[in-house]
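Batch manifest, entry 17 of 40.
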Amino acid sequence: MNNMDNDMLSQEEIDLLLQGSEDTDDHYDSNDIITDMEKDTLGEIGNISMGTAATTLSTLLNKKVTITTPQVTITDSDKLSYEYPIPFVAVDVRYRSGLRGSNILIVNIDDVKIIADIMMGKDEPDTDRDLTDMDLSAISEVMNQMMGSASTSLSEIFMKKIEIEPPEALKITLSEGRKIMDVLMGNDPIIKISFRMVVEDLIDSQLMQLIPLSFARDMVESLHEKPIESEDEVNNLPLDGDNNYMHMDDVQGDSVSGNNSAIAEDRVHEGEHVIVKNPEFETFDIAEVASFNEPIDLVGEIPIELTVELGRTTKRIEEILSYGPGTIVELDKLLGEPLNVYANGKYIAKGEVVVIDDNFGIRITDIDQP
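Output type: C-alpha cells
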C-alpha cells in the first residue's frame, strides 16, 4: 500500500472494508447452503486453530496477541471482489496430509509491515514505507509457524496427522486473486471466517479466512464422520471451554501430548540421521533452602532475573525462513554438558537440570569467580 493509499483510507476505513457489510452477507440464505450446526462447527474449528496460532504469533513477536471468536458467513468471489477493492496480503495455505484442500488468509498490508518490523528488531514499526519482498517472506514464515501449530491442534481433534505446505504470500486484490488462487476461482459459495486480531497497542484490525464450501464440508464430515444433524453433536465437540477470547494466556503449552509426540517425530525429513528422544531427569524432592551468603540489607530485596541457557547456534536468514513445524535445530551443547546460568544477562554459574515435582530446576555445580 503506497502513501497515496494511506492518504485516502484510514485504518478504521480499512477495517470496515475487511469486516464487509452485513447486508451483503444476506446475498445467500446460509441455511440453504450449510446448517447452523455446520456453521457452529466451522466456527469452533477456527476458534481452536486460531487460538493456538495466536499463541505462536505471541511467541514469535514476544508480545501479547489476542484473536477473538470468529464470525462465519457465506460469500462468493464476486461479492468479495466488490467489497474489498483495495490490495491486501493474501496468504495461500494448502494442506498436504490429513486434509485435502486449501484456504486463504487475508491480512492488512500495514499489519504485515508491523509484524515484519518487529521480527527484524525495529523499535518503531514504519507503516508509511512500501511493502517489500522481505515483508512478504516474513509474513509467509509467520503464517507457516501459526498454521503449522494450528494444524497440530487440528490433529488432536481430527485424530490424524495434519500438515500444511509452506504458505505463499502475495500483495494482491481479491479481483486479481480470482485468476491465480484456487479458492477464488469460479463463483461457488465460499465460507468467510472473520477474526479480530490485537497485538498489544500496535495492531487492532481484522484477519479473514476464506475456505471453499466443499473443503469446509469435508472438514465437518471428517470430524463427525457424517453430516451434523443435531445440536447435541456440536455440544460434544472438543471445545476450548471459553467461547470468547483465545490468546496466549488461554492456551497451555502442554495441551499437545500423547500421540502428537509421534506426529512431531514423523516430521523429521528422510535422510536426516537425527535421534529425537525425551530426556530423562533425576527427580529431587523439595528440600529446605540453605543460605550461604548473608544479604546486604540495602539491596537484598531487589529482584534479579535468572536465566538458564540450553544452548546456542547460528543460522543464515534463508535457513530460518525455511523452518516449519517439526524442524530440528541442533544446538552447541552436548547431552549432559553443564548449562550456563545468567543473572540479568550476566554469566554467573554453571548447573545441571533437575526435576522438582513437575517443574524443571537447575542445580548449581560451578560458580564463576570474579
